[in-house]
Design goal:
This protein has helices at about 15-25, 30-45, 80-90, 115-130, 135, 140-145, 150-165, 170-175, 185-200, 200-205, 210-220, 225-230, 260-270, 280-300, 310-315, 315-325, 430-445, 450-455, 475-480; strands spanning about 5, 10, 55-60, 65-70, 150, 185, 235, 240-245, 245-250, 345-350, 355-360, 370-375, 380, 410-415, 415-425, 455-460, 465-470, 485-490, 500-505, 510, 520-524. The protein is an alpha+beta fold. The protein folds into 2 domains: about 5-60 and about 75-235 and about 345-385, no CATH class; about 235-340 and about 415-524, Gamma-glutamyltranspeptidase, large (L) subunit, C-terminal domain (Serum Albumin, Chain A, Domain 1). Strand 3 and strand 4 form a beta hairpin. Helix 2 runs parallel beside helix 6 and helix 14 (about 280-300) packs across helix 19. The chain is globular, with a radius of gyration of 21 Å. The relative contact order is 0.19.
Length: about 525
């Protein structure tokens, strides 16, 4: 059952972060203050999900919805030829890359784009916050300096990352010290957070931290220079809007895949009420997701380079044609899409005054690039791994270009008023889990915690196969009968995402956190 809080709450994938956010609310801070405090703690205790070296995106409701995108760009010297030359010089492994990217390395310095998180946190606080970054970073700094016990859950992520990046570039020196049950101390990160508290974001974008980032990356083949960091800007954008039954769903515009979630939901809305029976309904959801992901592959990129406007992709007649192509009985051969696994942290917060925050922050693939900047404790993301070395690809790498971004915090309205603050980690799984949560909540009428707990499925966009949690084995059999290639995964598997959600009611907030994570929802 959902938990109820009359005056506000915070839901995150780690209990220490939720606790830090709740403490801010209890002390009179607002939802944005709480969200930033919680995110800073996540950056310390879940470096396999997010951190100072990643990007941050949010939707904030303060009577109207504002999208905040702090998405970093490729270096000013980044071109397909420059990347190939760096690979030829021994930097980056083109064999370890996403399919369809032409060998764009997944790890190392080459896929690192400008980290946007720090600028995003300061922007959120300047625009909506009531507390300083210094005050809100206190708990995170203490946890970095004094350490926290490493859980078995964290150790699983560590083992996966070690298999991917090996020693990395400074990665093993820092994260190789993590041991289950022992305190993991990060004094360099504590000092970096203290520097940001005293000097502000310029310490990273125009100061010595940024110089250290650029020098580290240049030493390993990247063309990143301090001027690339100084050029970073946070963007405020109106969210995209789409309909699902009686709900208006708000998602972020490109370069995020918010349009992908709205495409899938729009297709399902055009198909009408979901049929009775889990298998019949899930089949339609899977087909809608596969169609939307194929659309993502063909069109989605940095909006400055897209050949079609996102609004045109969501035109009702277009969604209707996509819906008409779906059979209620058999799967269709939708084109494959480029996969994007990830290691992301989603959180949401609400306060007594109705300020709402849907926020997501990520290092992308687990710990990210495997690059740790000496003396800073900052592990850098590898968001540029989704770029392509094919100049004809919508996501071809180019100077100052933003990569297609999987991060999509969401908000839903009923009758023009906030109803649901929601989101999930899971990279490719994010739009899919948005579809499933809304299906559980809107079509089935589930309680929000029950919707989060429900067995999940995730489509592998590269081949169209469907992974289903083993506690739904009957569903798996029924999907196979409709032509789907189905694989069972463990109950409450990490691969099925970590979703959190807050329902706004006249009496306060009903909220839930995902049992697939170490998280909690805590409130006042």
């Amino acid at each position: 059952m959902a938990r109820w809080f009359p005056n506000g709450c915070v839901a995150t994938p780690h209990h220490l972060a939720s606790s830090a956010g709740q403490a801010v609310l209890a002390d009179g801070g607002n939802a944005v203050d709480a969200a930033v405090a919680a995110n800073l703690v996540l950056s310390v205790v879940t470096p396999y999900h997010c951190g100072v070296g990643g990007d941050v995106l949010a939707i904030v409701w303060d009577g109207e919805a504002t999208g905040v995108l702090s998405v970093g760009a490729a270096p000013s010297g980044a071109t397909p030829d420059a990347i190939r030359a760096a690979i030829a010089a021994g930097h980056g492994d083109p064999e370890v890359s996403f399919p369809g990217t032409g060998g764009m390395p997944m790890f190392g310095a080459l896929p690192v784009t400008v980290p946007g998180a720090v600028a995003g946190w300061f922007h959120l606080l300047e625009r909506w916050g009531s507390r300083s970054f210094g005050a809100l970073s206190t708990t995170a700094r203490h946890l970095a300096a004094d350490g926290f016990p490493v859980s078995p859950y964290a150790a699983e992520h560590l083992a996966r990352a070690r298999a991917r990046v090996g020693e990395g570039i400074g990665w093993a020196d820092l994260y190789g010290r993590m041991r289950v049950g022992e305190r993991f101390v990060q004094p360099d990160l504590a000092a970096t957070l203290a520097t940001l508290a005293s000097e502000g974001p310029d310490a990273l974008y125009r100061g010595r931290i940024g110089v250290a980032i650029a020098e580290t990356l240049q030493a390993h083949g990247s063309s990143m220079v301090p001027e690339d960091l100084a050029a970073h800007r946070v963007a405020e954008r109106p969210p995209l809007r789409g309909c699902y039954r009686d709900v208006e769903v708000l998602e972020l515009p490109p370069p995020t895949q918010g349009v992908t979630a709205l495409t899938a939901l729009g297709i399902l809305d055009a198909l009408g009420p979901l049929p009775a029976g889990d298998a019949a309904a899930v089949h339609l959801q899977v087909e809608a997701v596969r169609a939307a992901m194929a659309d993502r592959q063909e069109h989605l990129a940095d909006p400055r380079t897209m050949d079609v406007d996102a609004a045109a992709l969501l035109a009702a007649d277009r969604l209707g044609r996509m819906a008409a192509a779906i059979s209620p009985e058999r799967t269709a051969p939708w084109p494959p899409a480029r996969p994007a696994p990830g290691g992301t942290a989603y959180l949401c917060a609400a306060d007594r005054d109705g300020l709402l925050v849907s926020l997501i922050q990520s290092n992308f693939v687990g710990f990210g690039s495997g690059v740790v900047v000496p003396g800073t404790g900052i592990g850098l993301h590898d968001r540029g791994a989704h770029f392509s070395l094919d100049p004809a690809d919508p996501n071809a790498i180019a100077p100052g270009k933003q990569p297609m971004h999987t991060l999509i915090p969401a908000l839903a309205l009923r009758d023009g008023r906030p109803w649901l603050v929601f989101g999930t980690m899971g990279a490719d799984g994010q739009p899919q889990i948005h579809v499933q949560l809304l299906g559980q909540l809107v079509d089935r009428g589930d309680d929000v915690q029950a919707a989060i707990d429900a067995p999940r499925w995730v489509v592998d966009v590269a081949d169209g196969s469907v992974r289903v949690e083993a506690r739904a084995s009957d569903l798996a059999d029924a999907l196979r009968a409709r032509g789907h290639d189905v694989e069972l995964i463990a109950p409450y598997a990490h691969a099925a995402g970590h979703a959190h959600a807050i329902v706004c009611t006249d009496a306060g907030y009903a909220a839930g956190a995902d049992p697939r994570s170490e998280g909690a929802v805590i409130g006042c």
